[in-house]
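chain below, 121 aa
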Amino acid sequence: QVQLVESGGGLVQAGESLRLSCAASGSIFSINFMGWSRQAPGKQREVVALITSGGSTNYADSVKGRFTISRDNAKNTVYLQMNSLKPEDTAIYYCNALIRRSSVSGTGDYWGQGTQVTVSS
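prediction:
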């Protein structure tokens, strides 16, 4: 079994910062890319940021220059540093990871339960 657990969400004012963490645990052989997505009320889930095992990153245009994704491969953990937060960043934030559970298994896409981020104006 594999589990992803997010933490770090909360209520902040516009312009402030938050740092989200997501730790993967369980039967893990390797992790390919890890990422963060978000879903605001009444909207579709959107990918916010991705990071490969080698550290290459990709961001949604709406967060470029404000959000930074990073990972600690030794801890199987991915982070999302969110600066200059805006009310439109309010959403449930989910992490996901492509994980291989053994040397002979394929990869599976695992998701966390989500953490609420609310930005007040």
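The chain has no helices and eleven strands. The chain has a mean pLDDT of 96.
thats it, cya
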